[in-house]
Amino acid sequence: MEFKHLLFGITVLFSLLSSSQDSLRTHWAARTHDTPLIDGRLDDKGWSYSSETWSSGFVQRLPDEGSKPTAQTHFMIVYDEKFLYVGIRCEDEPSTINQWMSRRDGYSGDWVEVILDTYHDKRTAFSFTLSAAGVKSDKYITLNGTEEDIAWNPIWYAQSEVNNEGWSAEMKIPLSQLRFSREEIQTWGLQVQRRILRNEELSVWKRIPQDAPGWVSEFGILKGIHAIEPQRQLEIQPFIVGSLETFEKEPDNPFRNSNKQALNFGLDGKVGVTNDVTLDFTINPDFGQVEADPGAIVLDGFQLFFQEQRPFFIENKNIFDYRFSSPIVGGPFSSDNLFYSRRIGRQPQGAVTIEGNQFADIPQRTPILGAVKLSGKTKKGLSFGVLESFTPKVHAEISDGTSQLIEPQTNYFVARVLQDLNQRQTFLGGIFTSVIRAGHPETSFLHKSAKTAGLDFLHQWQNRNWYFGANLVMSHVKGSKESILNTQRSIPHLFQRGAGHLAVDSTKTSLTGTGGDIKLGKAGSGNVQGELGITWRSPELELNDIGFLREADIFQQYTGISYRSINSFGIFRNARINYKHWLNWDFEGKLNYIDWDISGEATFQNNWSATLGYFSQPHIYSKSLLQGGLRIKLADQYGFWWALNTDSRRKFFLTYSGWTKTGDEGSYYLLENTLGINYRPLDRLRVSFTPKLTLIRHRLQYNETLAVGTGNDYVVSLLNQNTLSLVLRADVTIGPNMAIQYYAEPFISQGTYSSFGIVENPLQSLSEGQLRPIRILGTASDGASYQIDTNDDGTDNAVIANPDFSFAQFRSNLVYRWEYRPGSELFLVWSQSFNDTTLPDNGLVSSLGEQIFSRTLGSTFLVKLTYRFHR
Asked: Going by C-beta distance under 8 Å and a sequence separation of 6 or more, which residues neighbour residue 234?
């Protein structure tokens, strides 16, 4: 044995003796001068240390925590000045190993995962996963395992191979992709996890009970790494994009009389300012390969929340996330956030005015000239992130040669800090956001500036099993009288609705509001978990310039408690029973709704799963249904939700879910069913088809407001709405670094309105004279409006729009992706999109064919090439 191997063996023996009283499991890494060849075989000199340097003794985490796994796993970690190397031997019967292929971050088939808490803060970690088919996956874990950033794509190298003893894996991780302190002797958190798909079994090196209060905080220890220098990261990724847009020609429209070609350039980069601080930047970013948002239609006036899909904003999004009220019970306000990155590069907000014989070319999104993120974590536990982004003025081009400004030049800024205290059991943080817009008369309806700030506190005790958290937020928006008046009258605020504590002030040029959340909860230790808290948003709170706020003027109490199984029992792999409730008041002290739920969910031994829940809303008043009118009483409601999933380990499996709502006379009725059909005919091919049908019957659907003297009449009706969406996905994985993906969604929603009425007694029930009926006396020749009689005198005294609609939409995206070298990619993209709105004449399926598939759909063809320079 060479001297270095003997010396390492003595070090390991001493460490085992000295750590015998340490309850944390420890693995010792070895320094190597024989660089392993990354071929998946583990047969070269780099892995030739004695058997004592390998760790084993894995135990099940799922389904039977602490039990012996189906097959044992062994691993070793060695390192040199630039890289960390991990070798893993997975014992198994070769014929039973699942080698399903997927694209990167697919987590398909059998795999092994190495997780490194290099800061040893017991809160964040870097994860590297390799499947038996050789597919890499990686993610950045935060909040002690509750958040995962799968958009994190470091450069690393790995290979796997199936052999007579099972399969083996080799990983080579550049130290430049990790973040760690400058200490001479390193101590990192470590977990190694293995999945055996056929049993849906997870086994781990460091045993973590199912009722543990966290994930990263319970890791074992990696020691033996010393005298390594933090590596500064430097990555530059220029790209070039060529696109061709085709569409049905409109000879009279100069903007639609020929195909459009474009050539674009941009640059993404990542620079390690220090080992603890990273600078990410993008110049003229392109997101053409991003999947389209799902189809949706809004009738209640509230904005829709869409998940971020653009890579620059997804990566490290956890640093800037500030959902100041995200209870475990969920609820309609869980998406409220001081930073909602979809605001940057949004669709221009201005309207275009043209004459009857003119045409306009209106951009669908605001370009982003540049964005930069500076983020890091110091050795004293201070995490921080700063984001700055800049968007230019956007004009709509008019066919007469003029242009109209529809979005001003805007600067977006976000800063977030979080300090670990009390041996990482207490956290104190803050956030500040700012939006500054250039002033133009054409966009005076927008705020000139918008600033928000927040403070957050979290304290944990009894080994993190209990926690107390608090958040406080404040907003301040400034602008013209027009912009502040618009904010007061907008759906989240509705100052004009006649509440005793609210009044519209048309002279104001600013608004300042507050919000917050206070909660107490139990996260682990035993079968019972729970949380209770309160959350509020003052009437003046406004976040929607750079954040997301669904509704202001609320004070809500929430409670949730659940009982869960720790291990499998009987026919169940695991099971849980939940109770939740929400009570909601406005700032005038009026109780607006009561909602309580009870549900059960279980996974069976055959890996099927089921969910069944019941909810009741015995008290409902809406302050937004009339979109500016008085608070109105709604019928009591109740309903069920359900789900049933077959075994996802099979090549063919189904998912089925749905929910329904009904109640007293005039209640809101809903029935929604979603079926997922998934099939994997080949290891490299996976297809899914997901139809969803939604039926709605709503007696109090708001239509419009009629001015009557000095007051208003609010027109409502019975809405009969049917919605159908069909989502098709197909993934062909040619190799670990090459894949073809297709996504398509035809979507159609039809609504017909009848039984029109005027709200006369909003606080009465429907049977007590809540509405005064409206008589329709005639219809316009084009069907677009009705002549109505509002006072039952037989003469038409008002006109209302015909609100019937048939809205159809089609979105598709075909993407070929080839990572031809680590971090460098080629994309070939074909996308189609089309919207159409008309009056409903036929059923859903036939109308979809008439409104979409009988038309010439526009197409965009895109080629994107990136090259990643790194060291």
From this structure: 176, 270, 271, 272, 869, 870, 871
Contacts for 43 with CB less than 8 Å, ≥ 6 apart: none
At which residue do the structure tokens 């507050």 appear? Answer: 514
742, 730 contact by CB (below 8 A)? yes
- Is residue 510 classed exposed, middle or buried when 0-12, 13-18 and 19+ CB atoms within 10 A define those classes? middle
Q: Report H helices in 34-190.
A: none
Task: Tell me the two tokens of residue 189.
Answer: 């958190």
User: If you search the block for the tokens 């990263």, which residue do you land on?
Assistant: 216
The predicted structure's pLDDT at residue 18: 35
Cα distances (Å, whole numbers) of residue 851 to 114, 845, 846 = 51, 10, 9
Task: State the pLDDT at residue 1.
Answer: 39
* CA R_g for the chain: 30
3-state secondary structure 814-827: EEEEEEEECCEEEE
What pLDDT digit, counting tens, does each position of 39-77 carry?
999 988 878 765 668 999 999 998 888 999 999 999 999
CA 3 – CA 695 distance, rounded (Å): 76
| Tens-digit pLDDT profile for residues 306-348 | 888 787 887 777 888 899 888 888 877 888 999 999 999 999 9
> Which residues have a Cβ under 8 Å from the Cβ of 686 and sit 6 or more positions away?
102, 678, 679, 680, 729, 730, 731
Q: Write out pLDDT tens, residues 636-680.
A: 999 999 999 999 999 999 999 999 999 988 889 999 999 999 999
- Predicted TM-score (pTM) above 0.85: yes
Interior/surface letters 126-158, b for 16+ CB within 10 angstroms, e for the rest? bbbbbbbbbbbbbbbbbbbbeeebebbbbbbeb
Query: Distance between CA atoms of 722 and 843, rounded to whole angstroms?
Result: 9
| CA dist 174 → 49, 164, 187, 271 (Å) | 22, 30, 18, 15
- Residue 49 pLDDT: 65
| DSSP bridge pairs for 476 | 451, 512
Determine the 3-state secondary structure of 165 from DSSP. Answer: coil
